[in-house]
Amino acid sequence: MTSYREKKVITIGVVHELTGLSERKIRYYEERGLIFPARSKKGTRKYSFSDIEALMNIADQREEGVQTDEIKRDMMKKKNSKQIREELRRGQLNAHFNMRKP
């Protein structure tokens, strides 16, 4: 079951109201590959609470002068290290319970 934090149900207008970021800036961060909203059948962007937190983090870093390329690089490092940790954890569980990947 998907956590409420991950459900993409919030429109860009609401994200604008919650974050204070302009809709244009939110779209720009999407274009730069920093956030990944879902799209409805009609093409409306839908965001999650996690996306909003990410946007606030991005905005804070931009205020400190961090470039979007640097932010993206850091995000990829964190994502990769998280994936590696998950694979290690899964491998340890598989080894402990003598399980193999299908």
Backbone structural class: mainly alpha
Number of continuous helical runs: 4
E-strand count = 3
> What is the 3D shape?
globular
Oligomer: single chain
What's the main sheet like? 3 strands, antiparallel
Helix and strand element order: EHHEEHH
Beta-strand content estimate: 5-15%
Q: Gyration radius, to the nearest Å?
A: 17 Å
CATH class: Mainly Alpha
Can you name the CATH architecture?
Orthogonal Bundle
Count of all domains: 1
Strand line-up in the sheet with most strands: 1-3-2
Low-confidence stretches: none
Q: Kindly identify the CATH topology.
A: Multidrug-efflux Transporter Regulator, Chain: A, Domain 2
Q: Helical proportion?
A: 55-70%
Distance between the termini: 23 Å
Mean pLDDT: 87
